[in-house]
Amino acid sequence: MILSAVSTVSKAQFANGDSINPCHIKVSASTYGITKLVSLDTYLSSYEHFGGGYFYNHENFRDARTGEFMWKYQTLFSGMAGFTELYDSQQYILMLNRSWSGFHKFHTDGKIDFYGGAQIQLAGGAIYAPANSNNPVAAKLQTSLAATGMAIYHIDGKAFRIQLDLPLIGAAFSPGFGQSYYEIFGLGNYSNIIHLTHPGNAPSWRLIVTYDCELGKKRNTTLRISFINEALQSDINDIRTSINSGSLSVGFVKTLYKIKGNSPLKPYNPFR
Fold first, then answer.
1. Which of 40, 67, 115, 224 could, after both became Cys, cross-link 103 (CB 3.0–4.6 A)?
2. Does residue 130 lie in a domain region?
3. What is the dihedral of CA 39, 45, 46, 51, to 10 degrees?
4. pTM of the full predicted structure?
5. pLDDT value at position 271?
6. How far apart are CA 60 and CA 76, in angstroms?
């Protein structure tokens, strides 16, 4: 995950008693950082390009209830703008990712919590290669249903988290090799541009590692350091694509809550 952090262990505040619904308390983090990039898109070039860029990530995490069943709800948004090159060939890359996840806690021993669930992913963006005169842009649009899981280790105001998201089935936009976007959008040739994706033709993943640490004597500020490795890969319509990024980011955690009345406050953590 990787941005201004909203800590896994950050302390939210809510009133004692039932006047505050824990499902309305949200832990939110934004982190900013840099990323290392390797890009390949055979629509534009047959060779891998190497470079880097800037990365932003925002996460919300809270409790949720469906009837009597309690679960965890997570949303993630990330944006990456980068530049890669190989000799005198350059590529400019912009990618945006959005996901919605539901988790069930399977086990806890007091220090380590394990969660598993399902995730909906939506990713879009473009690669621009100025040296290509006929087809300089490759657009990206993909949606997937993914399996997701995380483990969180808590100790003395610190939290270490590992999360893995694996897309299982979805759909992606891809023109045919050599097919121009003018043919698609100008002439209306929309046949064979939307394709089913699965681990066989689109083996992608996202690995998230975060470290949250409470700062100060009062421990009322939480720092997050994040590393995210994301691979968006596909082999569709005779076009191979791979956008692999490793991003390091730093941020702070915020807890959004609502207080009613003058009841005493106590710490609250939706990751628990």
1. 115
2. yes
3. -30
4. 0.85
5. 60
6. 7
Cα distance between residue 101 and residue 165, in whole Å: 10
Asked if residue 195 belongs to a domain, the reply is no
Average pLDDT over residues 91-107: 94
Of 27-41, 131-145, 176-190, the poorest mean pLDDT is in 176-190
Within a domain: 86: yes
Q: Are 38 and 31 in contact (CB under 8 A)?
A: no
Q: How many CB atoms lie within 10 A of CB 61?
A: 23
Q: Which of 245, 241, 219 is nearest to 231 (CA)?
A: 245
By the 10 Å C-beta count (0-12 exposed, 13-18 middle, 19+ buried), 164 is classed as middle
The answer, yes or no, to whether residue 8 has pLDDT greater than 80, is no
How far from each other are the two terminal CA atoms of the chain, in whole angstroms? 19
Domain count, the chain: 1
3-state secondary structure of 30: strand
The label of the residue with tokens 């949200």 reads: 26
pLDDT at 15 over 70: no
The closest alpha carbon to 140, from 94, 77, 190, 89, belongs to 94
Cβ atoms of 80 and 93 closer than 8 Å: yes
Amino acid of residue 224:
R
Amino acid at 192: N
Residues of the chain with pLDDT > 90: what percent? 60
Residue range 55-84, pLDDT digits in tens: 999 999 988 888 888 899 999 999 999 999
Q: Is residue 186 part of a domain?
A: no
| Joined tokens for residue 50 | 């190497």
Tell me the DSSP string of 187-254: S---TT-EEEE-TTT---EEEEEEEEEEESSS--EEEEEEEEEEEEEEEETTEEEEEEEEEEEEEEEE
